[in-house]
Specification:
single chain; 302 residues; alpha/beta; Rossmann fold; 6-stranded mixed β-sheet; 8 helices; 16% strand
Length: 302
């Protein structure tokens, strides 16, 4: 029955569509309760006091709802073995993590002292500033055997700009609150990075457009000056052409007027000549009379 319940839970988790996928890495020494913490949150297995070491890496998934968005958490449980090959394999899965959970056992002070080393391992593989960090004190149900006080854990978290919580995988105390608050923080960080990326792209495009405009401005002024000079030259040519045209037209008019004057003079001369050539009948009659009178006189005399 237990296996059927866990299988149903996994099926429903896989069938749910998610809007965002956030990767979480769980780090810490062996036997501090990392695997039990992940199993208690995802509901994959019941709590067991038997220790089963994680080889290389293991991961579980669970979908949470926040701000009307389905967020799928991909929780990676890395091996805490000292073997170099397995450790290197586990470090390969650090990339892309948005959150890091550093676990220690509150009943074992040495595990608390190794938290700095686990933080350094994560920062060597990814940018630590872009990762939300949480220091988790496991096995809070064994507070009677506590070796690390809450104040010590809080001081360590403040030094690394992280958050400190205490949980118990056996009683499932504080586990849901841990992942709920972590999901909210990752979602807000995701929105911030997206908005920053959008503003950066906008500023880059704006700067590019301004740079292109600044480079094009002298070209535009030069083209305008060239256009204006060309226009002036064309105007000068037109003015020269117009003056030449006027001079040519005046010359043509003068040439046309000169023969007209000559024709007028010739016509006037021809008229005068015609007048001179016309016989004066009165004079001829007078001459004829004079001739006739003389003739008559001559006839009479004769």
């Amino acid at each position: 029955m237990e296996n059927q319940e866990t299988a149903t839970t996994l099926k429903t988790t896989k069938s749910i569509r998610h809007d965002h996928l956030f990767k979480v890495v769980v780090l810490g020494d062996a036997k501090v309760g990392k695997t039990s913490l992940v199993a208690a949150f995802t509901g994959s297995n019941k709590f067991s006091e038997e220790y089963l070491p994680t080889l290389a890496v293991d991961f579980k998934t669970k979908v949470l709802s926040h701000n009307e968005k389905n967020i799928k958490l991909q929780i990676w449980d890395s091996a805490s073995t000292s073997r170099t090959k397995l450790a290197q394999m586990g470090e390969l899965y650090y990339s892309g993590a948005m959150a890091g959970i550093y676990c220690f056992d509150i009943t074992d002070k040495s595990t608390f002292q190794h938290v700095d080393q686990w933080m350094l391992k994560l920062s060597n593989n990814i940018d630590k500033d872009n990762v939300i960090q949480v220091v988790v004190g496991c096995k809070s149900d064994l507070s009677a055997d506590r070796k690390v006080s809450p104040e010590m854990g809080q001081e360590l978290a403040i030094r690394h700009q992280a958050r400190y919580v205490e949980v118990s995988a056996m009683t499932a105390t504080g586990i849901d609150d841990l992942f709920q608050s972590l999901t909210k923080a990752m979602y807000t960080r995701h929105l911030e990075t997206r908005n920053n990326a959008m503003t950066e792209t906008r500023t880059q495009t704006l700067n590019r457009s301004l740079s292109t405009q600044s480079t094009e401005k002298p070209v535009m002024t030069r083209s305008k000056s060239l256009r204006s000079s060309f226009r002036l030259k064309s105007k000068k040519k037109k003015s020269r052409k117009s003056s030449l045209d006027v001079a040519n037209s005046n010359n043509q008019e003068m040439q046309e007027m000169v023969p007209k004057k000559k024709q007028v003079v010739i016509e006037e001369k021809s008229k005068l000549d015609a007048i001179e050539e016309v016989p004066d009948t009165t004079k001829q009659e007078g001459k004829e009379k004079q001739k006739g009178s003389t003739c008559k006189a001559c006839c009479v005399i004769s």
